[in-house]
Amino acid sequence: MNFVYERLLGGKNAALGIAILAALIFIILPIGLDLFRLNLVGKYLTYAFVAVSLVLLWGYGGILSLGQGVFFGLGGYCMAMFLKLEASDPESTKIQSTPGIPDFMDWNQLTDLPWFWEPFNSFGFTVLAVLLVPSLFALIIGYTMFKRRVGGVYFAIITQVIALILTVLIVGQQGYTGGINGITDLKTLHGWDIRDDSSKYILYFINAILLFGVIFLGRYILTSKFGRLLLAMRDKEDRVRFSGYDVSNFKIFIFCVSAMISAIGGAMFTLQVGFMSPSFVGIVPSIEMVIFAAVGGRMSLIGVVYGTLLVNFGKTIFSETLPELWLFLMGGLFIAVVMFFPNGLAGIWEKHGQKLLVCIRRMQCVGAVKTLLNKRSVKLEAAGE
Amino acid sequence: MSMTDFTLAIEDLTVSFDGFKAVDSLNLYVDVNELRVVIGPNGAGKTTVLDLICGKTKSTAGSIKFKNKELTKLAEHEIVHAGVGRKFQTPSIYENLSVYENLEISYPQGRGVFSSLAFKRTNEVDERIKQIADEIYLGDFLEKESALLSHGQKQWLEIGMLLIQDPELLMLDEPVAGMSVKEREQTAELLNRICMGRSVLVIEHDMDFVEKIAHKVTVLHQGKILAEGNMETVQNDPKVIEVYLGH
């Protein structure tokens, strides 16, 4: 019990923050929004997974990855492959020249299912792949970079390049990946229609539960000695190294964890939105996700969720009214946050929100004392008479 | 090279940066329980020697043996695990962590990825941290954020972060730089106390301080040893006088 309270919820203040966020996501939003908007929130919350992963990696670890979209995308694609195979049974694809394979393969003159698609017929394998494929990819990148002590801005640029390469690869290999359109027309999961209203609600809640799961995982990591080491490495890497730690191993590990968390978001994205395409893999989405984290506060697991929601709602509203200005606004927002609120929304809350709470409490106290005094004087008057 | 009784035996150690030999065929032996001070003018290669021992810089030739274990091929953290601790010239501590957490991070347990996730503050850890904090005069500042410590206290904290690992060879790069007179005296006392049961290698400029702590002094000049012996011999050595006063 103590463990749960101290380590996962993070004591009184943090537990309150989690409770408020949970009330918002589990109660207020589902009641207050129509299904269309709620589905939109669900989509935004899948980006929040990436933002949470960036708190671990960037906020605490000091490792800025501008390629988290890669892992989001890999997770999403793994899930999409499974759903696509289920949607491509011979019955519903009988008009193709090769029935039983995904439609885009048929359009690209493929006559057999490629070998690496085969295992995605199994849902168990797919779940494992969602978690492990991005982590393994991160392991390879992390091993080659961190063992050679590539860091800082060089690491950021290389992750950016990897995001670009993967996009080009996916677009270029149309027959295997669905190309620029991505993998579309996903219908069912084990026969369960993921497009109807009830399943949208269910998926929204599964997504929300998973999001809280990764927030707790993040808390667990950050409150352990590992978390303090991350901070220490960010600020004085040499001191950590000369205190007997193999710094690269810690960086590789947190990079893999962040990849896995992003991938869960990607898989949930595919399930809720019903398709996956290279436009969620590349440079732009990867940078957008960094902006979500920056706006929310890169040191706060809870703050980044608000940051993600806020920026995305802003994006939706502005791109409906002033589509051409949105990108400038986004850039401006990023610069403003970095310059004036380096700790984002969470930083503003910590600075002013606590005061607000104290104020409210004080006012309540004053109110309580007043009513008490009133009652007393009434009593005294009554007794006097 | 033969087996020796020395804690540290450096033989024919050379490192060259683009042809410039910062350390040139150096031979240096440090005994068990010895406190050795290395002095020398700027650019003599003092800090480079420490860098070479702790693995920060890779040597071009020669060997560094610590308890007969070759260090030149080991990674930095492996050298630490072997029992070598090093303090940097400018205090190198984790400024946004408390004194307690600084010492805790340096505690030699939970050094792997997974063991650090499972690491717990046991009573043993707690006691050890408090004991070290008392030793470095920071017993009353455990919960203080270390950025708020004075410069001298930061130097002590870094020494404490090494002591908690109980290294057999402790290397200190200018430990009293920027300290007040009183802090210098306390540091001298601290060093005399901690060199029991281990070897200490100190780089220092402050001659009064050197006199207080040194068992033996080595004078480096242009990457080579100019003189070696007790304080008096070295101070009266004509070569040393020329290097320090000559130009």
How would you describe this structure in keywords?
heterodimer, A: 385 residues, mainly alpha, 2 domains, two-stranded antiparallel ribbon, 75% helix, 1% strand, globular, B: 247 residues, alpha/beta, six-stranded mixed β-sheet, four-stranded antiparallel β-sheet, 10 helices
Strand content of chain B: 15-25%
- Report the end-to-end length of chain B measured between terminal Cα atoms: 38 Å
Determine the oligomeric state from the structure.
heterodimer
The amount of helix of chain B comes to: 25-40%
Helix content of chain A: over 70%
Task: Give me the secondary-structure category of chain B.
Answer: alpha/beta
| Count of spatially separate domains of chain B | 1
Question: Strand order across the biggest sheet of chain B?
Answer: 6-7-8-3-9-10
Rg of chain A (C-alpha, Å): 24 Å
Identify the strand order in the major beta sheet of chain A: 1-2
- From the spread of the alpha carbons, the general shape of chain B counts as globular
Helix/strand order of chain B, N-terminal first: EEEHEEHEHHHHEHEHEEHH
| CA radius of gyration of chain B | 18 Å
Task: Give the topology string of chain A: H per helix, E per strand.
Answer: HHHHHHHHEEHHHHHHHH
